[in-house]
């Protein structure tokens, strides 16, 4: 006896009230029972209104309004967040209006916003994939889509099942790879802006601003004759031990191709060397309390020197007779060598060994100064302008920002030798103080060299000491000019500073700002824009097709069951034995019989099944008038079905 479609529908499902009863338990054999209070009817008023094929775009958008709303939100978020990243990370200006975003705030905001933004895109893309699978199934000209792809894109299919579906399809149906990759790509995308980040100081200008002489220059040896030997020796004795690590004068610098054993530092001059613009240079910019109530001072685009030190090859040797000179004091001595190498200079030195100091034979250079030197380096100097932020309290360098590209400058080996001779060779007018200064300086340099070279041979201290020694005249060449200016020991035409050292010093405060890699910022912005635009194009393709996703309820199991042919078409007098719900039962029954309900059999069976949305173009005229929705069909080859159809 034939059964009506209403009877079939009623016998297959239980009461839908389980949605509202949290204490209700659901059997695996999910059925909705007959609602006896509501007799079967085929009147038009009880059937959902028919949505014609030529429905407006607005009506179609309502069918996928949740992911579409997520896309609109993502579009707005992409614009706003991209502007924030551009301002804070790319332009590197933490001041947004009156709000100054310091390092800790920027770090927190970027962490939160990036993850939220990635989660929003992930939610939108998951909704897009769900809508996409229904749209692919609605392609009548291609017979829908494969069941494997259809269930791979379902949000109700777990990751393991997606992998099995891909594997059993021979990787021909691999849309699920996109769904599997989304969470991992989202995690990496949300963390991209935190890659290789640093904190730097940022200057917030205030009051006052004054004109100053500031920066460093290649030393002018014409001032040597005006400076006492004791002064020169004191500077070299003090700063040869620590200059490249002293925060008031030097900072580690980055130069192109300077990697590995190469090292570089930048000498911006220092707050103590900067002077007010005027006829005499004996007043620092701190004189008179001008910057007494500020936290930091910024000196704008002053000339500086970038020093690069490269190791010399092991087989590099100086000509001991022509390029080296020994400086001997009371019971001690140093041998120093120089060679001009294009614009750079190669330098090396060694101290009189401990044994010879005990035997007091340091004066005989042939005993200890004929072997090739072990301590040597190559120094190259670049001119480069930079803006430097100094702490008002400690006078330490907080931040250096280059304002020009480095230009190589000639460092003369003969000028360097003249400076060394002035320090370590007494002159006719040298007094006791000069002799004492020479002896002390030589002994301290030699003692430190011997200590590390003889007792700690693996330490690089002798090379670092040599590098500091070479850098001292670069740092304090301006100091020598200042000395000859305010003591007026040189002619008047030699007292003025070069105009390139004239700049401004401004008081204010400094904060730490969050600094990221420029490429990561642009990559993040570009990727976000690409995802939003490409997903927008996919949404437009979906909503402009003739058959879109039916209105979802948000419950996957209900949505799927309600779209099966034979459950949604309740007005038919009989259920066709070849209907799609029967075919779906056949597919599941066939799969479960193969391997005792092992899910693998189901995945294998999907290879021969296709899923199709039956649109209005395949419905009868009566069904069009009654307003039936789009329906889900399963189709397969007859030889694939082994189950009992009786």
Describe the structure.
The protein is an alpha+beta fold and 646 residues long. The protein has 3 domains: 1-40, no CATH class; 48-195 and 518-640; 199-515, no CATH class. It has 18 helices and 17 strands. The longest helix has 35 residues, at 103-137. The radius of gyration is 41 Å and the shape is elongated. The chain starts with a helix and ends in a 10-residue tail after the last strand.
Arithmetic mean of pLDDT: 78
Oligomer: single chain
Domains, number: 3
- Computed Rg: 41 Å
Overall shape: it is elongated
The biggest sheet amounts to:
12 strands, antiparallel
Helix count equals 18
Number of DSSP E strands: 17
* CA(first)-CA(last) distance: 13 Å
Q: Kindly estimate the percentage of residues that lie in beta strands according to DSSP.
A: 15-25%
- Unreliable stretches (pLDDT < 50, length at least 5) are 1-55, 566-577, 616-629, 637-646
Structural class: alpha+beta
- Helix residue percentage: 25-40%
Transmembrane segments: 64-86, 106-129, 519-543
Keywords: Membrane, Transmembrane, Transmembrane helix
Question: Summary?
Answer:
This protein is α+β, with helices and mostly antiparallel strands and 646 residues long. It is built from 18 helices and 17 strands.
Key structural traits:
3-stranded antiparallel beta sheet; 39% helix; disordered C terminus; transmembrane
Secondary-structure map:
Layout: H1 5-12, H2 57-63, H3 65-90, E1 95-96, E2 99-100, H4 103-137, E3 145-146, H5 147-152, H6 159-168, H7 176-191, E4 198-213, H8 229-239, E5 251-252, E6 263-267, E7 275-276, E8 296-310, H9 320-323, E9 324-329, E10 332-341, E11 344-351, H10 354-359, E12 376-391, E13 397-402, E14 407-409, H11 413-424, H12 432-455, H13 461-486, E15 502-515, H14 518-543, H15 556-562, H16 580-594, H17 599-605, E16 609-614, H18 621-626, E17 631-636
Antiparallel strand pairs: 1-2, 3-16, 4-7, 4-15, 5-6, 6-8, 8-12, 8-15, 9-10, 10-11, 11-12, 12-13, 12-14, 16-17
């Amino acid at each position: 006896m034939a059964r009506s479609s209403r009877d079939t529908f009623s016998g297959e499902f239980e009461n839908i009230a389980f949605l509202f009863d949290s204490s209700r338990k659901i059997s695996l054999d999910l059925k909705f029972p007959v609602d006896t209070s509501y007799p079967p009817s085929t009147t038009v008023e009880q059937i959902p209104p028919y949505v014609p094929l030529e429905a407006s775009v607005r009506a179609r958008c309502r069918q996928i309004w949740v992911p579409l709303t997520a896309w609109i939100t993502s579009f707005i978020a992409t614009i706003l967040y991209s502007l924030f990243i551009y301002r804070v990370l790319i332009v590197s200006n933490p001041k947004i209006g009156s709000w100054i975003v310091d390092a800790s705030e920027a770090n927190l905001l970027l962490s939160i916003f990036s993850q939220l933004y990635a989660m929003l895109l992930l939610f939108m893309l998951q909704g897009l994939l769900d809508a996409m699978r229904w749209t692919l199934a609605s392609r009548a000209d291609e017979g829908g889509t494969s069941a494997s792809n259809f269930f791979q894109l379902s949000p109700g299919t777990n990751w393991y099942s997606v992998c099995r579906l891909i594997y059993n399809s021979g990787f021909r149906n691999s849309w699920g790879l996109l769904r599997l990759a989304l969470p991992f790509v989202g995690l990496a995308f949300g963390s991209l802006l935190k890659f290789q980040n640093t904190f730097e100081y940022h200057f917030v200008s205030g009051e006052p601003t004054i004109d100053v002489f500031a920066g460093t220059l290649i030393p002018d040896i014409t001032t040597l004759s005006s400076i006492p030997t004791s002064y020169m020796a004191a500077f070299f004795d003090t700063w040869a031990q620590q200059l490249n690590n002293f925060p008031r004068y030097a900072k580690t610098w980055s130069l192109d191709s300077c990697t590995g054993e190469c090292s570089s530092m930048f000498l911006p001059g220092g707050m103590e060397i900067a002077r007010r613009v005027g006829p005499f240079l004996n007043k620092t910019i701190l004189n008179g309390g001008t910057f007494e109530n500020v936290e930091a001072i910024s000196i704008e685009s002053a000339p500086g020197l970038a020093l690069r030190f490269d190791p010399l090859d092991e087989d590099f040797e100086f000509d001991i007779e022509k390029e080296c000179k020994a400086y001997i004091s009371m019971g001690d001595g140093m041998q120093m060598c120089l060679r001009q190498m294009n614009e750079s200079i190669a330098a090396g030195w060694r101290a009189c060994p401990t044994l010879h100091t005990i035997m007091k034979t340091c004066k005989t250079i042939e005993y200890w100064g004929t072997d090739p030197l072990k301590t040597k380096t190559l120094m190259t100097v670049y001119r480069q302008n930079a803006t430097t932020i100094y702490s008002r309290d400690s006078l330490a360098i907080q931040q250096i920002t280059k304002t020009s590209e480095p230009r190589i400058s000639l460092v003369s080996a003969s000028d360097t030798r003249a400076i060394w001779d002035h320090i370590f060779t007494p002159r006719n007018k040298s007094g006791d103080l000069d002799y004492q200064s020479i002896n002390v300086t030589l002994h301290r340099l030699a003692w430190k060299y011997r200590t590390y070279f003889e007792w700690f041979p693996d330490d690089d201290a002798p090379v670092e000491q040599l590098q500091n020694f070479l850098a001292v005249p670069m740092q304090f060449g301006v100091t020598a000019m200042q000395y000859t200016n305010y003591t007026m020991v040189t002619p008047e035409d030699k007292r003025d500073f070069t105009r390139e050292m004239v700049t401004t010093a401004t008081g204010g405060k400094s904060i730490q700002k969050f600094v990221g890699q420029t490429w990561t910022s642009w990559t993040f912005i570009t990727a976000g824009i690409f995802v939003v635009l490409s997903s927008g194009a996919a949404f437009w393709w979906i909503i402009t097709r003739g058959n879109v996703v039916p209105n979802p309820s948000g419950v996957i199991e209900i949505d799927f069951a309600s779209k099966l042919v034979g459950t949604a078409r309740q007005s038919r007098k009989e259920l066709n034995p070849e209907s799609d719900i029967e075919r779906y039962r056949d597919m599941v029954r066939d799969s479960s019989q193969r391997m005792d309900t092992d899910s693998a059999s189901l995945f294998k069976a999907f290879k021969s099944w296709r899923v199709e949305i039956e649109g209005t173009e395949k419905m009868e005229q009566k069904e069009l008038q009654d307003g039936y929705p789009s329906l889900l069909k399963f189709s397969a080859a007859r030889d694939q079905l082994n189950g009992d159809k009786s």
